[in-house]
Design a protein that fits this description.
Residues 16-71 form the HTH lacI-type domain. Pfam families: LacI, Peripla_BP_3. This protein has helices at 18-25, 29-37, 45-58, 64-71, 87-102, 116-128, 146-157, 179-192, 208-223, 240-253, 265-278, 312-324; strands spanning 76-81, 106-111, 133-137, 161-165, 173-177, 198-202, 232-235, 259-262, 288-290, 307-309, 333-336, 339-341. The protein has 353 residues and is an alpha/beta fold. Helix 1 packs across helix 3 (45-58) and helix 10 packs across helix 11. The protein has 12 helices and 12 strands. The longest helix is centred in the first third of the chain and has 16 residues, at 87-102. It has a 6-stranded parallel beta sheet, sandwiched between helices. The protein is elongated and about 75 Å long.
Length: 353
C-alpha cells in the first residue's frame, strides 16, 4: 500500500487519517490541519468545534511530538487552579476543558494547593513544555509581586497566550466575576430581613476575592444605614473546615448574631454544620446563613443554601475562548454577573430576647 501522498493526510496511531476527520467534519483538509496541527491562520470557532468533534468521534490522534518540533508549540493548554478537589475550581475547569476539546486541544491541569509560589513554577514548566496557552483560575493576591507577572510575560513573549479568572493586577485578558456587587446584594437581603447583628466568615484577607467580597458587603451594609464596623469578621481557611472553626469562634465572641455570611459556599457548609450539630441553633429560625458561588450541591443541603450565583463553567469557557481568539491590542476584561439566589437558609431576624 502506498503512503498518503499529502503528508497532512498522515494516519494517526489508530489508522484514522486527517482526511477522514476533514470529511467527517465537512471541511477542507487544510482547515482540519490548521485546527489539529496548529497554524498561525485563524479558524472560526464553529469550524474548529466541528473538526474537534469529528476528531474525537473518530479517535484521531495527531503526532504531537513531531508537530511540536515543527511549530514550537503543542496542542495543549495549561490550567492552574488553587485546589483540584474544590468544586469551585472543578466547575471552572469543566467549562475551560469543554471549549478546549471543541478546538482539538488537550488541557493539562495543575493545582497549587494555595501555595502562591507554585503558580510561577507551573507557568515556567508549561513554557518549557511549549504549551499553547496558560489559564490562571483563582484569586490574585493583594501583594501579587513581580515574579508571577514576569513569568507570564516571558511566556507571552515566547508566543504563548495568557488568560486569568478573577481579579489580578496583571496586564492580561481577565474574566472578572462581580464579587463586590454580589456581596452588596447579600447586605441588602439581610438588612431587609431585619438582621442587625451579623457575622462574616472570610478566607485569607490577602486574597483579592476575599477583599472584594468583604469590601462589597461592608460597603453595602454602610450604604443601607448600618455601622460599617458592626459586622463581626472572622478569618479562617477558605474551606468547609475553616467555616466550621470560624463559626464556633464567631459565636464565642458574639452569641447574639442572627445571620452569618460566608464568603464562599464551602465555608457556608461548615457554618451550617457548626450551627446545627455543635451549637444547637436552628437555621433559619435562630440564625440565617448565606454563601457565595452557588456550587452544584447547595440546593440539596438541609436547608437549601441562600447564596450568590456565579456562572462558574461559563467563566472557565470564556477564559479559554479568550486565549483561543485573536489577541487584542489591549488586555480584555470580561465582566461576569452575580445573582443572589434566595433559598431556605435565610429568614427574618428573630425578635430580641
Amino acid at each position: 500500500m502506498q503512503p498518503d501522498a499529502d503528508p497532512r493526510a498522515r494516519r494517526g496511531p489508530g489508522g484514522v487519517t486527517l482526511r477522514d476527520v476533514a470529511e467527517r467534519a465537512g471541511v477542507s483538509l487544510a482547515t482540519a490541519s490548521r485546527v489539529l496541527n496548529g497554524s498561525s491562520r485563524v479558524v472560526g470557532p464553529d469550524l474548529a468545534a466541528r473538526v474537534g468533534r469529528a476528531a474525537a468521534e473518530l479517535r484521531y490522534a495527531a503526532n504531537g511530538p513531531a508537530q511540536a518540533l515543527a511549530r514550537a508549540t503543542t496542542n495543549v493548554a495549561g490550567l492552574v487552579v488553587h485546589e483540584v478537589d474544590d468544586p469551585y475550581f472543578a466547575s471552572i475547569a469543566a467549562g475551560a476543558m469543554r471549549v478546549a476539546t471543541g478546538h482539538g486541544l488537550l488541557t493539562m491541569m495543575a493545582s497549587t494547593s494555595r501555595d502562591a509560589g507554585r503558580e510561577v513554577e507551573y507557568v515556567q514548566r508549561f513554557q518549557a513544555q511549549r504549551v499553547r496557552a496558560v489559564l490562571l483560575a483563582g484569586s490574585g493576591r493583594i501583594d501579587e509581586g513581580d515574579e508571577l507577572g514576569r513569568a507570564l510575560a516571558d511566556f507571552a513573549d515566547g508566543g504563548g497566550r495568557v488568560a486569568l479568572v478573577s481579579e489580578h493586577d496583571l496586564p492580561f485578558d481577565t474574566v472578572l466575576p462581580a464579587n463586590r456587587r454580589g456581596a452588596a446584594s447579600v447586605a441588602r437581603l439581610l438588612r431587609d430581613l431585619g438582621h442587625r447583628e451579623v457575622g462574616v466568615l472570610t478566607g485569607p484577607r490577602e486574597l483579592r476575592t476575599v477583599a472584594d467580597r468583604l469590601g462589597g458587603f461592608l460597603d453595602g451594609w454602610e450604604q443601607l444605614g448600618g455601622d460599617r464596623g458592626a459586622p463581626v469578621v472572622v478569618e479562617a481557611d477558605f474551606s468547609r473546615a475553616g467555616g466550621h472553626a470560624a463559626t464556633l469562634s464567631l459565636f464565642a465572641r458574639a452569641p447574639r448574631v442572627t445571620a452569618v455570611f460566608a464568603l464562599n459556599d464551602l465555608m457556608a457548609v461548615g457554618a451550617l454544620n457548626a450551627l446545627q450539630a455543635d451549637l444547637g441553633r436552628r437555621v433559619p429560625d435562630d440564625v440565617s446563613v448565606v454563601g457565595f458561588d452557588d456550587l452544584w450541591f447547595t440546593g440539596d443541603l438541609q436547608p437549601a443554601l441562600t447564596t450568590v450565583r456565579l456562572p462558574l463553567e461559563d467563566m472557565g469557557a470564556r477564559a479559554m475562548e479568550l486565549v483561543l481568539s485573536p489577541p487584542a491590542a489591549d488586555p480584555r476584561r470580561v465582566p461576569v454577573p452575580a445573582e443572589l439566589i434566595v433559598r431556605g437558609s435565610t429568614g427574618s431576624a428573630r425578635p430580641p430576647a
